[in-house]
Design brief:
Helix content is about 85%, strand content about 0%. The chain is built from 3 helices and no strands. It is rod-shaped and about 170 Å long. The N and C termini lie far apart (about 160 Å).
């Protein structure tokens, strides 16, 4: 700061019950001052607890180096585990968002496909209706043609029968004259 160097010395005095109580009070005060959340994920609370744990490790290391080193290993392992969980959480969240986007896109595509198919269905239903009308008209014309042909055939048959009858009558008239 401003060309000055600061040096911090570590207190080598063993911690007392009063020091631990003081640390606890300072911790509560800082949590309140920085408005750390009491539950859930809170970066501020995690930082303050890490500082407190570092201080407890320092105090423990002063009285027993081996115990302090073991606590350091525990702290480092818990940080690595927390980092792994955070990475896993971020990855799963990103995957969740990607999957949600895919589902939304798929849903949009499906809605468009449904609309297209419904339109095609209506077109085909109209075509079926038109073809049914054409079939009815063709059947009606066919029936009329059949009836007309039958009437024509009957009339011809009747004509031929009359003609045949007349010719028979004439033939018998000619035979009776002879």
């Amino acid at each position: 700061e401003g060309g000055r160097f600061w040096k911090q010395n570590v207190c080598m005095d063993e911690s007392s019950r009063a020091n631990v109580q003081n640390l606890k009070m300072q911790m509560s005060t800082k949590l309140d001052q920085r408005q750390a959340r009491e539950t859930g994920i809170c970066q501020i609370r995690r930082e303050l607890y890490a500082q407190c744990f570092d201080e407890l490790i320092r105090q423990t290391t002063v009285s027993c180096v081996e115990r302090g080193l073991l606590l350091l290993r525990i702290r480092d392992e818990s940080r690595m585990t927390l980092h792994a969980y955070m990475t896993l959480y971020e990855s799963s969240t990103a995957l969740g968002f990607r999957k949600a986007n895919q589902v939304e896109k798929g849903k949009t595509d499906m809605v468009n496909t449904i609309k297209r198919l419904e339109t095609r269905k209506e077109e085909l239903e109209q075509e079926v209706s038109d073809l049914k009308i054409k079939i009815t008209m063709v059947e009606k014309r066919q029936q009329e043609q059949i009836e007309s042909d039958e009437n024509s055939h009957r009339e011809q048959l009747s004509f031929y029968k009359r003609t045949n009858q007349q010719l028979k009558s004439q033939l018998e008239g000619i035979k009776s004259l002879k």
